[in-house]
Amino acid sequence: MQIQFTARHCEIGPELRAFVQTRIERLEKFASDIHGVHVVLTQERHRHLAEITMRLNHHDVVVKEEHDDPRAALELAADRVEQHVRRFKEKRVEHRRGEGAKTVNGVDATPDDDAPDED
Fold it and tell me: Domains (ranges, CATH) in the chain?
């Protein structure tokens, strides 16, 4: 996976690059079809804006976060990207399973109409 970094009006140090790279690489367990990631860090006055754009098959995830600390802004953005990718994976898995395969803890969650009522 290719990760591109862009810094506007600031610098991205090697420790910050390594931090973002490890966070993004963790997402490969949720989506194996990640084609590329573009991380943009912008400083405007006293705040830092972090934007992460992730390209997947037939889907793009774009997240923007801001904070006073550049590491915190990147961490917030990485958390939101992880939430999006997890949600997208759940949708893909549910779509593959179909309507009849809904279970709760391995037990069929659909009501059984043939079962007699116990009174």
Answer: 2-97 (3.30.160.100)
Please spell the DSSP secondary structure of 87-99, one letter per residue: HHHHHHHHHHH-S
Of 92, 78, 74, nearest to 32 by C-alpha is 92
**φ, ψ dihedrals at 35, nearest 5°:** -90, -35
For residue 98, is pLDDT > 80?
Answer: no
The 10s digit of each residue's pLDDT in 63-86 is 999 999 999 999 999 999 999 999
Cα–Cα distance, 55 to 61 (Å, whole number): 7
Judge contact between 50 and 77, C-beta under 8 A: yes
Residue bearing tokens 């194996």: 32
Specify the higher pLDDT residue, 113 or 37: 37
Do the beta carbons of residue 45 and residue 34 sit within 8 Å? no
- CA–CA separation, 24 vs 52, rounded Å? 10
Q: Scan for tokens 């992880």, then name that residue.
A: 82
